[in-house]
């Protein structure tokens, strides 16, 4: 029955997530949708599985969001902004994002990240991991140039080499590495 198959596919998704290794995409559990029509039908309807793999294969970013349905909380992973330069006017459904892992490749990618992240209310966001990778010095621009997003349910925040000024009154754990936020930005957190 489809319900049993869906349980098996959820187990498979934990064991074999899709991923991007530099030049090669590994489809992981998505390969099961290529086996037969009935498996494909079941997997295309499994919104929760698609919502957990957004960004793991950069070329499938938008397809994964579409297949996640309209109401499923999203877990998004982005490694660098450049693969997503085709976004144009497309915006993320910030009200549905439950976790966001954003690895910014270099300082050139920080501004697009801030533009995307600043302003809206991230009402479902519970976990944020943001890091500036491959950078010898922390990004030291004034983050107050960007409007502070509100993340009322944010519980955990890890940041490496740059700081995102935000309001997160429910925050219980924060880790900052190689970054020294201003006191007024830290005070903003709990408003």
Short key terms for the protein model shown above:
single chain, 191 residues, alpha/beta, two-stranded antiparallel sheet, 6 helices, elongated
Question: What is the element layout, followed by pairings?
Answer:
Layout: H1 2-15, E1 19-21, E2 24-26, H2 37-44, H3 47-51, H4 61-67, E3 74-79, E4 97-104, H5 110-117, E5 127-132, E6 156-160, E7 173-177, H6 183-188
Helix pairs in contact: 1-2
Short précis:
The chain is built from six helices and seven strands. The protein has 191 residues and is of the alpha/beta class.
Description:
With 191 residues, the chain is of the alpha/beta class. Helix content is 25%, strand content 19%. It has six helices and seven strands, in the order αββαααββαβββα. It has helices at 2-15, 37-44, 47-51, 61-67, 110-117, 183-188; strands at 19-21, 24-26, 74-79, 97-104, 127-132, 156-160, 173-177. The strands form two sheets. Strands 3-4-5-6-7 form a five-stranded parallel sheet, with no helix packed on it. Strands 1-2 form a two-stranded antiparallel sheet. Helix 1 crosses helix 2 (37-44). The longest helix has 14 residues, at 2-15. It is elongated. The protein starts with a helix and ends with a helix. The model has no long low-confidence stretch (mean pLDDT 83).
What average pLDDT do the residues reach? Answer: 83
The radius of gyration is 18 Å
Broad shape: elongated
What letter string, H or E per element, gives the SSE order? HEEHHHEEHEEEH
Number of helices: 6
Q: Structural class from helices and strands?
A: alpha/beta
Largest beta-sheet characterization: 5 strands, parallel
| Number of E strands | 7
Instruction: Give the terminus-to-terminus CA distance.
Output: 50 Å
Helicity level, as a percent range?
25-40%
Strand percentage, roughly?
A: 15-25%
Low-confidence stretches: none
User: Biggest sheet: strands side by side, in what order?
Assistant: 3-4-5-6-7
């Amino acid at each position: 029955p489809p319900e049993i198959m869906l349980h098996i596919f959820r187990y498979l998704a934990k064991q074999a997530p899709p991923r991007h290794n530099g030049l090669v995409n590994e489809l992981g559990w998505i390969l099961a949708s290529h086996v037969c029509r009935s498996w494909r039908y079941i997997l295309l309807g499994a919104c929760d599985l698609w919502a957990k793999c957004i960004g793991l294969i950069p070329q499938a970013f938008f397809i994964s969001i579409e297949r996640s349905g309209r109401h499923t909380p999203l877990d998004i992973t982005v490694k660098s902004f450049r693969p997503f330069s085709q976004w144009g006017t497309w915006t993320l459904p910030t009200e549905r994002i439950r976790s966001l892992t954003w690895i910014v490749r270099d300082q050139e990618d920080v501004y697009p990240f801030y533009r995307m992240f600043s302003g809206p209310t991230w009402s479902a966001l519970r976990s944020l991991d943001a890091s500036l990778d491959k950078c010898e010095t922390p990004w030291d621009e004034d983050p107050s140039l960007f409007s502070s997003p509100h993340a009322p349910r944010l519980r955990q925040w890890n940041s490496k080499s740059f700081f995102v000024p935000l309001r997160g009154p429910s925050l219980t754990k924060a880790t900052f590495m190689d970054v020294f936020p201003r006191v007024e930005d830290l005070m903003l957190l709990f408003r």
